[in-house]
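This part of the workshop introduces the protein records we will be handling. A record pairs a protein's sequence with a compact description of its fold. As an example, a complete record with its sequence and its structure tokens follows.

_____
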Amino acid sequence: MKPKNAICLWFDKDAHEAARFYAVTFPDSKVTAVHEAPGDYPSGKQGDVLTVEFTVLGIPCLGLNGGPAFRHTEAFSFQIATENQEETDRYWNAIVGNGGTEASAVGARTAGAPPVRSPRAR
């Protein structure tokens, strides 16, 4: 049964890149559909990726290339419980190594919303 809702994440123009990152980083994650513009439009051209359907840890998501109006913040994060420190480090290193910053991740941790946490951190 297809879920009736999905998390929508707004991107400037890199929704497909982000979806591919999630798909290779986390288990039970994959890109399921890419929707391109059928023709030119005021801020883009035919073939531009408009939306991307994907899952992260089995959670359905929609990436929307909506432009620079809204930026990502720590107000939203995926909460990922890990089995051990090695798994935590693997995810942490993938996120930081792909353009994420330790400062923003640490900020999320101190606000009580760690993006990745091991059983010892609970």
Q: What stands out?
A: The chain has two domains: 1-67, 77-122.
